[in-house]
Amino acid sequence: MKKKRRSPLKVSLIRRDGRLMIEGLGAWYNYLSDPYHLLLTIPWSGFLALICLGYILANALFALAYILGGDGIENARPGNFLDAFFFSVQTMASIGYGAMYPSSTYAHILVTLESLVGLFGVTMATGLMFARFSRPTAKVIFSRVAIVTTFQGVPTLMFRTANKRRNLILEASLRVSLARDEITTEGDFLRRIYDLKLIRSQNPSFSLTWTAMHPIDSSSPLYGVSKEALAEDETTIIITLTGLDETVGQNIYAHHTFAAQDILWDMRFVDILAWTPNGDRYVDYSHFHEVKPL
């Protein structure tokens, strides 16, 4: 029996350690068709390795081209790859030590072409380097768990977030959504997303910590839902934080998710606000992730 070949566009949704995992995401996407995005998203080590590899490969190809042209480099050993390679490096970098120089029309044409290639190469590498450095990033942390506790007599979903930088995030905004599996009245499976309304979703100057609170009232998707039902429906809480970095004046983004197992019931966060003996207040981040029973 002929084995059926797995479709290359297949994306798997699996449950691992209580979390919904996606394997094969972007299977229909070819990264080689979008090199700019690839060079912006790969790690710095990979980016620098590609730049170095491209530089060495380009000089090696031009060195072979110089050798194929015969004795066209003055003061270079005929047919010597190293001499041709280092002459190519000097040409591409516009160093021009003067010890070796082109002595034939063929070599002059190659030097002209290589100078143009080097100009474009340096321009692109500089632009990519600047684009990677200039991308705004948010140094924001979220609590490892979310809790369901009582706040002013109402069951409330809470989690913490904090700004790790010393500057402010202006006009910070939190958006919280809930995603869970549902079966429609027609019997169709649906991964449905609900917006969770927060008591305060805007912060004009986010500098220290922020405790987000969603009241679980009759209008909440979590109303009447047990922790067992959250796990059964593979519920995920999705948080997006946006704001304006006051230092660079650009929008920054932060993202976090809580699986059903990350939501603790009948707990409260340990207070991180404390007072010194002289009456001054301070924030103790060592207890940022800690919770305790009600």
Automatic annotation (TrEMBL):
Where is it localised?
Answer: Membrane
- Ranges for domain Potassium channel come to 64-133
Domain Inward rectifier potassium channel C-terminal span(s) in chain numbering: 140-292
Keywords recorded for this protein, A-Z: Ion channel, Ion transport, Membrane, Potassium, Potassium transport, Transmembrane, Transmembrane helix, Transport, Voltage-gated channel
Give one Pfam hit by family name. IRK_C
Record-level GO cellular component terms: monoatomic ion channel complex; plasma membrane
Primary residence: membrane
User: This protein's superkingdom?
Assistant: Bacteria
Membrane topology field:
Multi-pass membrane protein
Listed GO MF terms: inward rectifier potassium channel activity
- In Gene Ontology terms, what is a biological process of this protein? potassium ion import across plasma membrane
Q: Which residues cross the membrane?
A: 44-69, 81-100, 106-131
List, alphabetically, the InterPro entries matched.
Ig_E-set, IRK_C, K_chnl_dom, K_chnl_inward-rec_Kir, K_chnl_inward-rec_Kir_cyto
| Name of the protein | ATP-sensitive inward rectifier potassium channel 10
Q: Give the species.
A: Aliterella atlantica CENA595
Traced from the root, the source organism's taxonomic lineage reads: Bacteria, Bacillati, Cyanobacteriota, Cyanophyceae, Chroococcidiopsidales
